[in-house]
Hints:
Layout: H1 3-25, H2 28-38, E1 47-51, H3 57-65, E2 70-75, H4 78-91, E3 96-102, E4 105-110, E5 116-117, E6 124-130, H5 138-147, E7 149-160, H6 164-173, H7 180-189, E8 193-197, H8 205-208, E9 211-217
Helix pairs in contact: 1-4, 2-3, 5-7
Amino acid sequence: MDNKNLRARLFYRTFGFLYDKLITVNGYKRSLTHFLQRLDFPENYPRILDAGCGSGLVSFALLEKFQRAEVVAFDCNKEMVESAFRINRQKKYSCLELLIGDIGKMDSFARLDGRKYSLEEGSFDYAFAAGSLEYSDLKTGVAKLAGILKTGGKLYDIAVRDNFMGRSVGAVQGFRPSSLLEITDAFTQASLREIQEVPFSNEERNAGRIKIVICGTK
């Protein structure tokens, strides 16, 4: 485990129990939920990967709108996966699979009960990484996420902005935000096309202050 991942795991192990409350109080959760629910998926039963799911913000926001979706969500921090599991006890989404795993090791996943789970290449319509590629090698992470997409599938990187606020968060949590050029270069090297920034609306400004969304198609 590299120092960046170790520092991230220690941070979320220490403060993970407060994470969902913090992003609710500062308005980030509501803003990002609004953004995610603006997306329009043409598939009747989209299969979605939430890479680095934390307490499940992306997964739950998408399932609230796309109730026929199948969502597979994973995080390297067991404590965060357990938090998402507890939230889902109330929400009761049977189409949500919660796993422990790492973007850098896409061939090694497990459920909370220890049972193994495999992700098949070319099996997802959409993949989301919300502030999780910051903790891995960017180009490697994007390439691995692109690999699990179907042809025509889309990858959304909800990345921490390379601005004062983003760099301040990175200093605390142990990462350096990637620039827009670095992200688009990683998408290009992963053979993704139609690469574009998806802007936040005025209603989503609390998310837009710290995040930028880049989308690419396989």
